[in-house]
Design goal:
By secondary structure, the chain is an alpha/beta fold. It is built from five helices and twelve strands. It binds glutamine. The site of glutamine (GLN) has 12 residues, from helix 4.
Amino acid sequence: MKIAVVAVQGAFIEHIHALKKLGVECVEIRKKSDLCQDIDGIILPGGESTVQSKLLRELDIFDELKKRIEEGLPVLATCAGLILLAEELSNDERSHLKTLPVVVKRNAYGRQLGSFTAKEMFKGIGAFPMRFIRAPFIEEVADAVEILAEVDGNIVAVRYKNQLGTAFHPELVDDTRIHEAFLAMV
Ligand code: GLN
């Protein structure tokens, strides 16, 4: 099994560490041709979604990535990655890959609560330490979207077909169960 990690900006190295811990082969996606190899799944890391989107376009990765996800390539998207997948952003006119039928609010917790950890239930896994950093949450989901976790009544993790999205950073905690759940999807 080979998992790609989009490595144009943000916390990609932490995902690679989590995958290596699980004995999985990883490749970094930095240019369009990196997407031509055989990959079984892809991770979109946290970081700054506007910067990531701009770089993905400039590096000519954007359209191929969108196509591969629409064709069914399994994807795990965390924080900024989730923002990139969302069909709509409630507080930003720009949306990006638009493959996930949800409405996401960027920086949803405001400045006061820039960063925090909550241990809450994740469907199929149990209590999980969820690390939020200037995080979004999900405000609306289409009927076919499965809600996997909520914190204080806000949706923070979903699955839709081949797409798994979390508003928090599973790669920043010492618990690989969400990566394992993604690998099981692959
Ligand atoms: N606030 C960032 C954004 O809007 C996301 C933060 C993160 O990925 N930790 O893209």
